[in-house]
Amino acid sequence: MRMGRYLVPLAFLIVWQGIASSGIIPEYKLPSPAAVMAAFGELIMTGMPPGHKLPSHLLMSLYRVALGFFIAAAVAVPLGILMGWSRRLQYLISPLVEMVRPVPPLAWIPLSILWFGIGIKSAAFIIFLGAFFPMLLNTIAGVQSIPKILLEAARTLGADQGNLLMKVLLPGALPSIFLGLRIGLGIGWMTLVAAEFTGVKSGYGLGYMIMTARDIQRSDEIIAGMVVIGLTGLLIDALIRKAEAKLLPWQ
Amino acid sequence: MGLELKGLTKTFPAQGNGDEVEVLSGFNLKLDHGRFLSLVGPSGCGKTTLLRIIAGLEPASRGEVLLDGAPLRPSTTETGLVFQQYALFPWRTALQNIEMGLQFKGVDVEQRRREAMEYVEAFGLMGFEHRYPKDLSGGMQQRVAIARTLIMQPKLVLMDEPFGSLDSQTRNNMQEFLLGIWEKRRDTIIFVTHNVDEAVFLSEEVLVLSRRPARILAKFPVEAPRPRDRTSAENNQLRKVVLDVLRSEGPPPPV
Asked: pTM of the entire structure?
């Protein structure tokens, strides 16, 4: 039964290889899985553009996402706890949040280039916008989901406001905060390519690599780059789940 | 000296219309230190509201709560409250729940851990101190909650149907356990229950409350010797008398 999970992906690869080998679709549009594997090797050994190798692209992308993500978390979590705690604060702030939230992060690209120029700041800003709102909303929901009776129990045990915040609201909201971090990081990673499309002049980054491959019609390298993005996203999500299981053993 | 309630009155806005519901109306009570008092009464009569006001979780509309002659401050640890639903912090182990109040007070880790371990031992929680509440039985969870309250050495312990969610066997065990603890420590306890057997078995005095607004219908001292015998003739006799008074309140009014 465990093997069953891999049946569909395997069948997908076989069909893909079959279509590619049959020559119905020209190879520059649809390279075979084998060609993508070869391109993958080429990206590691030679690089795209030559000299700019895959590991460096990946590291630069991770660095940009980490920067945007951590800044977003550092703002969203404390703000979310305060907004979840104080009805008045939520009343004051949420109209602005609700107005900005539906704007897709990509729509910020022109303004972000104007503000931050082409470079890491601009890319990090786009990722920040993608990651910020899910983290904020989940933190607020986490605080509001804490049963009132726990706050009362804490008060009867002599908790002051600081205790309530740090010893009850924060730990009580952690499961929801983690969910927000996972969603935020996922979205941050997804906006990466678009962010790097614009916000890059260093010549590194998975998005930059893919765009360069497109310029010379290397669809095999484009797909190899997409696979790396997908697998890395999967890996990051698994890591957060692991950390969550370790940090929240009471769940 | 002890607890004194003077003319405690509490009204809530009624649902729907602009009327007010009076839950307590000029409630008076005096309780000396070291007494174990039970309050029994029909459900919805205002017992819980009374405890919540004394615990400082709700303001009274009128009247005063005095402990040793001084008004109680809200969020004070002079009173402790044990909830029916345990209200343990799920992200803290049994030990961490028990030491939480000491942590709020700023007691350093080593000392509060040492004190909490004494309670772990006295409350039969040895071997379970590092478990999270979800991995404890209902009886154990409530023992953690009681230990968490008593470790603060409150001058007044309030218990709101603490055994109401337990099955009857566990409930009996917990009653005997609480009696054992009380006979050693002699805390001042107000114990709210709608279980007459429990009130008669545990306390020094049973107050029967009326439908709301809660008035004291009758006061029964319980003079049975300790250790108590659940099935003794005098115990049964007192249960009957208390039940008769409760029954005299009649069926609940239509809602």
From this structure: 0.85
- How many C-beta neighbours within 10 Å does residue B193 have? 24
Q: Are B109 and B181 in contact (CB under 8 A)?
A: no
Question: Is domain A31-247 given the CATH code 3.40.50.1450 in the classification?
Answer: no
Q: Match 């740090």 to its residue by tokens.
A: A166
What are residue B193's DSSP bridge partners?
B40
Residue B154, CA atoms < 13 Å, CB-side half-sphere: 29
- Consecutive 10-residue runs of chain B (255 residues): their mean pLDDT? 91 81 91 94 87 92 92 84 95 97 95 96 95 95 97 96 93 94 94 92 93 88 84 87 83 53
Per-residue b or e along A117-138, where b marks 16 or more CB atoms closer than 10 Å to that residue's CB: eeebbbbbbbbbbbbbbbbbbb
- How many distinct structural domains can be found in chain B? 1
Q: Check CB contact under 8 Å for A167 and B104.
A: yes
Note whether residue B213 is domain-resident: yes
In-domain check, residue B176:
no
Detail the DSSP E strand segments found in A120-218.
none
Q: Is A146 on the interface with B (CB under 8 A)?
A: no
Nearest CA in chain B to A157: B101
At A62-106, the pLDDT tens digits run 999 999 999 999 999 999 999 999 999 999 999 999 999 999 888
Dist CA A53 CA A47 (whole Å): 4
Segments making up each domain of chain A, as ranges: 31-247
In a domain, B91, yes or no: no
CB contact under 8 A, A250 and B90: yes
8 A C-beta contact, residue A155 and residue B75: yes
Structure token digits, residue B42: 């029909």
Interface contact A152-B149, CB threshold 8 A: no
Counted residue by residue, chain B has a size of: 255
Instruction: Measure CB to CB from residue B100 to each of A149, A157, A174 and give the nearest one.
Output: A157
Q: Residue B17 maps to which CATH number? A: 3.40.50.300
Full domain range(s) for residue B35? 1-78+190-255
> At residue A209, does pLDDT exceed 70?
yes
* B135 within a domain of the structure (yes/no): no
